[in-house]
Amino acid sequence: MPARTERSAGVLVYRVKPGGGEAEFLLLDYGRYWDYPKGHVEKGETDVEAATRELAEETGIADVALHDGFRHEMAYFFRDKRKGLIKKTVVFFLGRADASAKVTISEEHVGAAFLPYAAALDRVTYRNAKETLEAAKVYLDTVRTTPG
């Protein structure tokens, strides 16, 4: 039996404190693992619409400036007790939040933290999430420093 497919979208959020300095990346504590805000793309939604909706629902952050040139996609398989084998594709966008952005977590999470790159890389749980963060860091360091 072929795997069922699902699509999700999310935003890898960062902020920079006034006066500059190192970017801090937002991670959410899902209870058993740390990851980024993301969720299912609903029928009729674009990936960007889903990503920004999920960001607002999961963190309370409704205003984020997305970088036009960053899009990181990953795919993985997992098994659901009811649905069986699922191939999940997740697309992440990179967005800069205001330096004073505060997080209001949803009931899906038990915590949140803005962390500098090295600490965020250490804390994020899954290898593919680490790869997403690494790609965002390379992008910010070499390609674009401001959204647009």
Structure description:
The relative contact order is 0.27. This protein has 148 residues and is of the alpha+beta class. Helix 2 packs antiparallel against helix 3.
Question: Summary?
Answer:
This protein is an alpha+beta fold.
Instruction: Count helical runs.
Output: 3
The major β-sheet equals: 7 strands, mixed
Low-confidence stretches: none
**How many beta-strand segments?**
7
- Give the fraction of residues assigned to helices: 10-25%
Radius of gyration: 15 Å
> Secondary-structure element sequence?
EEEEHEEEHH
Roughly what is the average pLDDT, rounded to an integer?
Answer: 93
Q: Rough shape? A: globular
Q: What separation lies between the terminal Cα atoms? A: 43 Å
**Oligomer classification:** single chain
The helix/strand class is alpha+beta
Strand residue content? 35-45%
Helix and strand layout, with pairings?
Layout: E1 4-15, E2 24-29, E3 34-35, E4 38-40, H1 47-59, E5 64-80, E6 84-97, E7 111-116, H2 117-123, H3 127-142
Parallel strand pairs: 1-6
Antiparallel strand pairs: 1-2, 1-4, 2-3, 2-7, 5-6
Helix pairs in contact: 2-3
